[in-house]
Specification:
By secondary structure, this protein is an alpha+beta fold. A hairpin with a 2-residue loop joins β7 and β8. The longest helix is centred in the C-terminal third of the chain and has 15 residues. The chain is globular. It starts with 7 loop residues before the first strand and ends with a helix.
Length: about 200
């Protein structure tokens, strides 16, 4: 059977569109929105109230390679909150925030003030509603959230609801960045290391 041609799309997801197959809230789905002729999967969700860059591909192994926090691939967001952004807020976000409901502390990240109530944040992990939870733990609420970059792929001037093919030099650089990434979880990696050590004894 002929292997399908690799597809990688950059999609600008609007607010109100979901990245899930569930239709429990009857919201439009990103797969249905783009109506791409080949079956593609989204790489990392953006919640219904967020907008911006979502990568979609027919290459299943890419999904885990991009999303595993251990691979430390950057995802950049522009955020507007309901309170002025202070130096203390930036320092706390950057250091890592304890999320009681997830029983996790977020990894250190890059945060930069871009306006009175605006900041950009670069994450290498993707916990459920992470930025919203981090902001709430720091005493403010997100008013708008847009993902503008995943690794070397930028949203740019792509219009809301539209998509473009990632190809040429941009695609080659993207694949080079993934060269040494694993699609295994930490548990699977540890199990594999154990097998390697036992094989060498």
């Amino acid at each position: 059977m002929k292997k399908p041609r690799p597809v990688l799309l950059a999609v600008n997801k609007p607010k109100g569109v979901v990245c899930t197959a569930s239709d429990k809230d009857k919201a439009p789905n990103i797969v249905d929105m783009i109506q791409y002729p080949v079956r593609v999967y989204y790489v990392g969700r953006l919640d219904k109230d967020s907008e911006g860059l979502v990568l979609m591909t027919n290459q299943g192994d890419l999904v885990n390679k991009i999303m595993r926090s251990g691979n430390a691939h950057e995802k950049e967001y522009q955020v507007v909150v309901d309170r002025p952004v202070t130096a203390e807020f930036l320092a706390r976000m950057e250091k890592g925030v304890r999320l009681k409901e997830l029983d996790r502390t977020t990894l250190p990240c890059k945060v930069r003030k871009t306006g009175d109530k605006r900041f950009s944040i670069v994450l290498t992990q993707g916990l459920n509603r992470q930025i919203r939870r981090m902001c709430e733990a720091c005493g403010c609420h997100v008013r708008s959230l847009k993902r503008v970059r995943v690794m070397n792929i930028c949203l740019g001037d792509l219009k809301s609801g539209e998509y473009r093919q990632v190809e040429g030099a941009e695609y080659r650089e993207f694949m080079k960045l993934l060269e040494h990434s694993t699609n295994l979880s930490f548990r699977q990696q540890n199990a594999a290391r154990g097998r390697d050590q036992s094989d060498g004894e």
